[in-house]
Amino acid sequence: MIPRLVIFDVDGTLVDSQRQIHTSMTEAFLLRGHVAPELAAVLAIVGLSLPEAVARLAPDLPEAERGDIVAGYKATFNGLRAAGIAPLYPGIAGALQALAARDDLLLGVATGKSRRGLVHLLQAYGIEHLFVTRQVADDHPSKPHPSMVLAALAETGIAPQDAVMIGDTTFDMEMARAAGIAALGVAWGYHPADALLAAGAGDVIASADDLALALDALWGAVA
What is one cellular component GO term in this UniProt entry (predicted)? Predict the structure, then answer.
């Protein structure tokens, strides 16, 4: 049996990190004397690499100033991470365990997080071993560039038709399509369902309890 690869986004898909992200971005902008972006604007850029996210939030600022905001964000976020990790969404832990136990599936991660941040999170929840491939912002261009997905496919030897990206943002859907794999959105994250569908999601999953059913429906549809 040739396994299929299920690649998960992290922020907004596995964990609800909006409080840490918004607080860190607010502090970073205020520290440099700028008006902090609204929550909706911050959630709209979740999933991008940090430099790209700041560039979209403050396109008129000089590159050096944006770099200082990035540094301020990292400092605040690291402090918040030390105080406590972002919570897993309801049902995610059990769903991941069940999917990883299947002989026909391999699990992976493609995230705008740094390697340090991802490892800290996965180890804190004891789920690092569930993912056979972990693609992070340190090694790739920002989503929606397909580099993360292409690297995951190469690392696992899985063909594009046997892989799917699961995420909560349009960047995840666009990345999947650019890499030639299927895409499924999740309804509990930061971008609305209609935007995910417009960006290429084959479906939007209502809850973590529906992940297995959605995958079985997808593979049945493409078999």
Answer: cytosol
The one-letter amino acid at 221: A
The encoded tokens of residue 22 equal 């918004």
Catalytic annotation present for 216: no
Quick one: CATH architecture of 18-83? Orthogonal Bundle (1.10)
What pTM value is reported for the model?
A: 0.92
Hey, where are the domains in the chain?
A: 4-16+87-222, 18-83
Distance (Å, whole) CA 156 – CA 151: 9
As a CATH number, domain 4-16+87-222 is 3.40.50.1000
Q: Which of 11, 16, 162, 168 is catalytic?
A: 11
**What is the edge-to-edge ordering of all strands in the sheet holding 105-110?**
133-135, 105-110, 4-8, 163-167, 182-186, 204-205
Residues of the chain with pLDDT under 70: 221-223
Q: What is the largest CA-CA distance in the chain?
A: 57
